[in-house]
Amino acid sequence: MKLGKKISGSKRKEVIFEPNRILGPTWSIEKVGDRYIYEYMSGGLAGGLKRHEITKADFEDVRAGRMSDYDLLLKYHLS
Amino acid sequence: MSPRTPPDPAEISTRSERSAYAEAIPPGDVTAPCRGPVRVCAYYDDPWKTPVTMVPLRITDQDGVILDGGARTQGLPSFGMQDGQEIDGVRPELGRFAFNDAKRGTVTAELVADASAPAQIADLEAQIIEDLRAFAASMETALQPWVRDWEDSGWWGVVSSVWAGAKNGAIAWWEGEGEFWSAVWDWFAGLPEMAGEAWDSLTEGAKALWENKEQILRLLQDLAEGSVVAFRQGLEALGRALASIPGLEEIADLLRLLVQQSAEWMGALYEMARTEVLKVLGATLLGVVMATTPNFWAEMVGTAGGYLIPEIILAIIFAFIAFFTGGTGGAALAARLSVFVGKVATKLRAAGPAGAVILRMFGAVDAVGGKMVSLVKALKRNIAEEAKGSTNEVIDIRRPIVRKSSLSPEKTKEILDTPKGSRPDPSTYMSQAEIDEHLAQFDDGAVRFADVESMEKYGTAGPPGGFVMPKSEFEQMLSDAGGNLGVMEEKLGFDPGHLTGGKYQPVLIEAEDFNGIRIPSGNEGGANDFWLPGGYTSGGMPEAVMDFDGVDFTPIILD
Q1: Same domain (yes/no): B165, B249
Q2: Best to test chain B binding among A1, A13, A39, A51 (most B CBs inside 10 Å)
Q3: Is the pLDDT of residue B161 over 80?
């Protein structure tokens, strides 16, 4: 088994809040026109980058700390 | 002219060797380089690489089958030895085979099963389970005197529900295992108090065994749950714990022989774990121990000269292992184990009515002995594996051991019916030994398939609670696929092109970089509708999760 060069994994844990975007360590929510797109790195064995539309209320709840990105996964039955 | 100095013996030898090899190459120098040796090493994928012994082989090179039957992987009988002897000298040769005349290049090595074995296994398995079911039903009557005395305590209620299941078939009985084990541990701990003054009269050896009661009971539980690796580790640990205790020399020596000087019976046990017999036998025997109420055992403390549950359980386990040693040609060790069992049985005969009841249990074990030995032999004839390699290397034939979750269907359903986000922690339904055994599969590292786009965007190979597979499983999958990424995609259930097109990049996470590796609870963000509790996928692949923040990873380069 041939290996490439070892890569240091990001240690970032903080969430960055911008007017139209919330950027988490492995996820983001972005306002695109009138839509709010939740993008997350799936934890499945083949963890791809997935996207799902959420509501403005969800966006505001995450911004206000009333909801976490994990809550979004549960609410929309995502994996 | 100086006299000629005669060459020394070493030089003569060297010249002779060259000459001999030269003679071996036929005119034209064609045939010899085209032929080469095939070396095979067959082993179980356990922590000790237990050899797969005495199994018929088939070797196929590019021209077709060159060896079929007549050759077997080497076992102790190949060297005129058996379990329980000093085998260190031959251990490196076990499970191996060498054949010196294959066409150089790709070679397939197979362990070949006997076509008649599966039917014989199914028949024997059904017979043994039926025997045990009948035994369990008969014991209910035998235990009635003690049960009546104990009924008012409320304790019997826990076991009686389990016991009622026994009458409908021993497998059904086992489904109540969660409550059952909990009850075992509860009352087991309170026995000294119940025995009262009789406890003080115990021998030092009996007290020492009692001090190790958790380990001894765990052995039976591991056996019943089919956790064979944990069972072997338990034997090792118990052997170390008892090694220097006066009066327990015989037990310590038997444990030493079983763990350090044996190579055959563990393989047989791995094969037995593929059947339901381990579960049913373990549940039946421990169920009887449990159904014998605490007042019964308190009576035994006073009348049986210190022969307590730990020693009786050990005797049961030794009787059980004797089937495997006997079934794999280890007659001498089987006899030694039987001697120990016989001594315990002799003392039980002098222990009044309570001893007689326990003797029935030994009788039940003995009664299925012949069928168990036949089952072990049939299981050994049912081993089939295949590996590809070349004449230039040792071809490893890896025999997977059963590593399925031991959870009952009811418990599995209960967990799956619990909404994601509220599912219980695995430590509430798996023993620590099971958890340790499972996570040990990741000791060589873990692999995950990271999406290249997300890896570049977020700088990590996964989110918190990201799923991983053992590195060894990945390597085996790669080997089985012959390096064909398309085959890998199919095995992993990926869409075509995910690996071949470079969308996903397998990455290695070294064990030293793990962050919170654990058994998945099903609450992880990545747990989908196909997730199962117990640490295995529906396809039987072991899985774990870890938190990927700050975790270093190394891309695996697929050609």
Answers
A1: yes
A2: A1
A3: no
